[in-house]
Amino acid sequence: MTDQAWDTLSIQAVSAAGVVYFLALLAYSAQWAARRGAATEEGSPRADVFGRFAFLLTVVAAGVHLLALVARGLAADPNRVPWGNMYEFTLTAALVVTVVTLLFFRRWNLAFLGPWAVGLVMVVLMLDVVWLYEPMAPLTEALSSPWLVIHVIAAIVATGVFTLGGLVSILYLVRASGRLSSLPAAEVLDRISYRLHAFGFPIWTFAVLIAGPIWAHQAWSRYWGWDPKEVWAFITWVVYAAYLHARATAGWKGRAAAIVALVGLATLWFNFIGINFFFGGSSVHSYSK
Fold this sequence. Notes:
This protein is an all-alpha fold. Helices cover 75% and strands 0% of the residues. The two termini are 28 Å apart.
């Protein structure tokens, strides 16, 4: 296949993934409606069928989503990893949200999270295509390094996990207010949010405090330069470190912890997207747009 054919396939696969995510969302909605219509929430065969179908559609959507990323990398000349700009970063982070949901679907009983996760990913894909899309281009000199794979994939994985944890924190606040009784108990949501953040924090630490400075030294001959993205990445690390420390030592749980987690999520996404619009011209990371 030619580079143009791979690029076309990538664009088509993103659109197809969005459609399958939407079908999965419809199936999850049908599952919810079947449970609401049953005499009891448990033991509804129709709801179980819709739930299994929704899970299968989510798996298919993740596969098509992955195909879009692989094709994007193969469309470049020379071939490269698909993490050269914000369009590609966000596309990958959205896939991480889906994959983490699927991986822990049964272990952490995340069936309730299915519709919210696929809905979030579907919206992100739409915004990614409409707002962040960049034509295929070779990597800049600074990005042509093995540390691109090490640093960026760690940052993307942590971003996806933190985003999912933030989503659970929002659901906790909604559930704690007495709404959406179909969700698990608020205590369960609080615990799942903590697990997700605890899982993502070491990965973010490695990306920001270890791999990032090493790559910066290789590319710009300095480990730290007070670049806006470096500063905000560290601010994000501090917020999440405070969140986990407060939970471990002061026993912070519930609403206060959820709010801190959402502050961390806000700093995270401001670092990934907002910096490009407010400080793009003054940042050595301006290539990541």
